[in-house]
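Q: Please design a sequence for this.
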């Protein structure tokens, strides 16, 4: 069984110590290890594994959050190779990365784990090769590997506790996830909550909130419910299910959670896999990006919805968010698509410079998408480092071909708007 062993945890803690010692040296330098997080800094790591989404957030007071831990059970020719290689499952890679990044903690732990929606590339999909958890009741893949390996205080998802909207979720991956969550609640005391749009108190600073009063984590959307921008009020963007043909009921991507993070002048948006371009013959409310963009407004940085697939990043969202930095969690030949790339580059949608960073661009896209060579970076872990107070930020690219945690490129500083 390829589980994260005690030896693996010791390795992680040792790696953290090495990074911590170097972190005191200051700025990130190409060829050196990534410097450690420092109090007052907001770090957003987009982790590259070649198997799915995983984002580690370290808030200004040291509060930690993981957004997704994807692990596709099967790779095809449309996917890039595992990063850095296939010797470990993706869930292990994510845990080992977290251990390095949390250099400042005596024992790496997560205050929050947020699952944007129930798809393999965001939560992990079990296969015949997946190891079984030590308790014997679920398999280790993605999120379940993280829950098995690291202390997690609170888990947030769109379905807790019944997982029944718009219909009972009975696919193998979600059943495995639910079995893990149930066991963690009973035996580890895991706190689980449904992600509630509109609220700003489900994810808060846990360690020194009074020192950073200008930090906010706002729940924007989930299950088609979208914050109005006023207090905690929301509006439903979907009609009652009984009025909709079952074949047109909202699919999983439409139900994704979305949030806006604010630190001083800096703002960041993550919309999971929400779509914004409606296929022919489908109802207009399949465009969930537009109502969400209206309430989010302009941001400094954002991750592309649905990896930049053809149904996402519509004109209105791109023009409204108009960030200086876009990041793409990508490992698939269909992500991003040419039409999305052209929208990202369009100065007609919004003026001014913008940089786009990808975790692992598929070689086929380098040939198929005109101008894709304008990507600021085509491969590597992407780290947004927001300075104390949120006035400026940098983008640091970290080598994903090994576990060296070494810096390959540095961009910025960008001035928060």
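A: Design:
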């Amino acid at each position: 069984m390829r589980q994260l062993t005690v030896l693996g945890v010791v390795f992680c803690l040792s790696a953290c110590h090495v990074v911590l010692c170097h972190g005191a040296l200051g700025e990130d330098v190409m060829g050196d290890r990534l410097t450690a997080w420092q109090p007052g800094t907001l770090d957003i790591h987009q982790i590259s594994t070649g198997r799915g989404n995983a984002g580690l957030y370290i808030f200004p007071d040291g509060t930690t959050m993981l957004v997704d831990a994807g692990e596709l059970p099967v790779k095809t020719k449309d996917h890039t190779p595992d990063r850095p290689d296939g010797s470990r499952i993706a869930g292990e890679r994510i845990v080992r990365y977290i251990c390095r990044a949390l250099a400042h903690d005596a024992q790496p732990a997560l205050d929050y784990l947020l699952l944007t929606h129930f798809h393999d590339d965001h939560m992990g999909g079990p296969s015949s090769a997946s190891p079984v958890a030590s308790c014997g009741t679920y398999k280790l893949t993605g999120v379940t590997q993280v829950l098995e390996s690291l202390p997690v205080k609170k888990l947030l998802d769109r379905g807790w506790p019944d997982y029944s909207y718009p219909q009972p979720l009975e696919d193998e991956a979600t059943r495995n996830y639910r079995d893990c969550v149930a066991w963690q609640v009973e035996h580890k005391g895991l706190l689980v909550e449904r992600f509630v749009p509109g609220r700003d108190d489900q994810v808060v600073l846990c360690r020194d909130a009074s020192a950073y009063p200008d930090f906010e984590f706002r729940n924007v959307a989930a299950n088609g419910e979208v914050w109005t921008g006023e207090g905690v009020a929301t509006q439903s963007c979907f009609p009652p299910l009984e009025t909709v043909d079952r074949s047109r009921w909202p699919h999983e991507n439409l139900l994704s959670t979305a949030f806006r993070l604010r630190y001083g002048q800096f703002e960041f948006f993550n919309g999971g896999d929400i779509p914004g371009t409606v296929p022919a013959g489908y109802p207009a409310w399949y465009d969930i990006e537009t109502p969400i963009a209206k309430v989010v407004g302009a941001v400094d940085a954002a991750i592309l919805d649905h990896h930049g697939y053809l149904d996402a990043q519509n004109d209105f969202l791109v023009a409204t968010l108009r960030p200086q930095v876009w990041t793409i969690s990508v490992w698939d030949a269909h992500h991003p698509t040419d039409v999305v790339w052209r929208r990202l580059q369009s100065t007609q949608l919004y003026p001014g410079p913008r940089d786009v960073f990808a975790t692992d661009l598929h070689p086929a896209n380098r040939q198929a998408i005109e101008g894709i060579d304008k990507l600021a970076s085509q491969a590597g872990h992407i780290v947004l480092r927001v300075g104390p107070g949120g006035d400026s930020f940098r983008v640091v690219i970290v080598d994903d071909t090994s576990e060296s945690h070494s810096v390959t490129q540095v961009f910025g500083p960008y001035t928060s708007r």
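Q: Thanks. Anything notable?
A: The longest strand covers residues 407-415. The radius of gyration is 20 Å.
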